[in-house]
Amino acid sequence: MKPRFSSMGISVWIAMVGLTQPSFAQGEDSKSKERIGIYDSRAIAVAFAGSPMHEKQLRHLLAEHKKAKEVGDLETVAKLEAEGKARQQKAHQQAFSTAPVDEILVHITNALPDIQRTAGVTALVSKWDETGLKKHPGAETVDVTMRLVGAFQPNERQRKRAIEIQKHKPISLKQAERIRD
Length: 181
Description:
Number of strands: 3
Largest sheet: 3 strands, parallel
Helix content: 55-70%
Structural class: mainly alpha
């Protein structure tokens, strides 16, 4: 007679081979455990600086500034100069401290789903974003920094700088605010 497996029989068989309910459930938890991609926002900022996307933004700002100067629009000149200084200060905070880089990641929006898929992650969170990380308690983390850097198609110098910045602790936002070019 062949054995029949009822739900009771399966439970007995599972117990016999050592797969108790808690260990079986634990296996299910590890399979369904959330995985999130974390990244060093400083490396993203460094890769963006000098990228074709960044250069296009700068060329536009400089062209507007030149045009305003040529027509004597001093109000627009002052506004654009203030914007340039604010952008530079923000770039310092992003590249050397822990300021968010969300507006930079917008430039690679098309690449993000593929990066998430290949890394097997459900979300991307800066490793410095404590609030964002708390939204994923117990999640396994996967470092996707260099995948994101690669999406900016950096030249070799930018890639090396993005790697190098990760070897150092970030400075405080206040220290970054004091950097002057």
